Amino acid sequence: MAIFSSTFASTHPVPHVVTVAGSTVIGRIRKRNEDALSLVPEQGIGVVADGMGGHPGGDVASRLAADAAARVLREAFVRRGAGEGFDTCFLEAMEQVTRAAHEDIHARGRMEPTLRGMGTTLTAMILDAETGGWVIGHVGDSRAYRFRDGGLEQLTRDDTWIQQQIDDNVLQPEHARRSPFAHLLTQCLGLEEAPTPQVFAGRGEPGDVYLLCTDGLVGMLDEEVLAEILGTRLRDAGELNAAIQALLNAAVEAGGHDNVTAVLLRLD
Predict the structure, then answer these.
(1) Cα 153 off chain centre by
(2) Class of 4-154+190-267 per CATH?
(3) Would you list the domain boundaries of the chain?
(4) Which of 47, 85, 107, 144 could form a disulfide with 155 if both were Cys (CB 3.0 to 4.6 A apart)?
């Protein structure tokens, strides 16, 4: 299990420090890893994607999406003009992320007909070392969480049939995780109809840690367990690498039914 991590400090008079780390494992059941991640630590960028299992080229779709997201956000970071607000710049860039990823997947499918119909989830985040601001872009059922003061808060909304049933008060959240339809997506990148992404912004506080993960993690571990692991590892080891390794190991030990990917971004 290779873990990638780096730290970036801004040149702001009272700088924040952003640390980014991530890793992925195949798990115990799958024959290949259809998850992908991209990290650009010097710009506070983290991305996870989960290719659609059972479809052709799920691993190709997730890799294309993760690479496209990192590329578009890097380019926006470089283009950002003096005085241009962080939210203004990167809310627009996140909209471009999903369009670019969707188009890249379609283009590859046209080039290689055996890959037509491939799809993927995508959750991307950029965390600003200067202001502590962040922007998230999301399609599918990979997730973004904020870990603060020992509590874990889900920031994204799953694009799933189950989530629609919960929103309509047809199903209670405690029953959703065990449903055979838990991973039935209502939209993703790569299919015929372009998705409508969730794109939103916020402000972090020093000490906040953001978790981006595929459903191979949350499908194996309850949020209370995730929070306990993060709290213990970040307190005892103080490094994101130890927390990521503990998260992935726990998901595999709990069954490892799917590929497992986690990215952590910390603001200090």
Answers:
(1) 14
(2) alpha beta
(3) 4-154+190-267
(4) 144
Encode pLDDT of 131-169 as tens digits: 999 999 999 999 999 999 999 999 999 988 877 787 777
Map the chain to HEC letters. Answer: CCCEEEEEECCCCCCCEEEEEEEEECCCCCCCCCEEEEEEHHHCEEEEEEECCCCCCHHHHHHHHHHHHHHHHHHHHHHCCCCCCHHHHHHHHHHHHHHHHHHHHHHHHHHCHHHCCCCECEEEEEECCCCCEEEEEEECCCEEEEEECCEEEECCCCCEHHHHHHHCCCCCHHHHCCCCCCCCECCCECCCCCCCCEEEEEECCCCCEEEEECHHHHCCCCHHHHHHHHHHHHHHCCCHHHHHHHHHHHHHHCCCCCCEEEEEEEEC
Reported pTM: 0.92
- Residues 23-40 have pLDDT tens digits of 999 999 998 999 999 999
Residue 2 burial class via C-beta count within 10 angstroms: exposed 0-12, middle 13-18, buried 19 and up: exposed
The answer to whether 117 touches 55, Cβ cutoff 8 Å, is: yes
Backbone conformation region of residue 264, classed left if phi is above 0, alpha if psi is from -120 to 50, else beta: beta
Q: pLDDT tens across 166-201, in order?
A: 777 777 776 666 666 667 889 999 988 899 999 999
Closest of 148, 139, 156 to residue 265, by C-alpha:
148
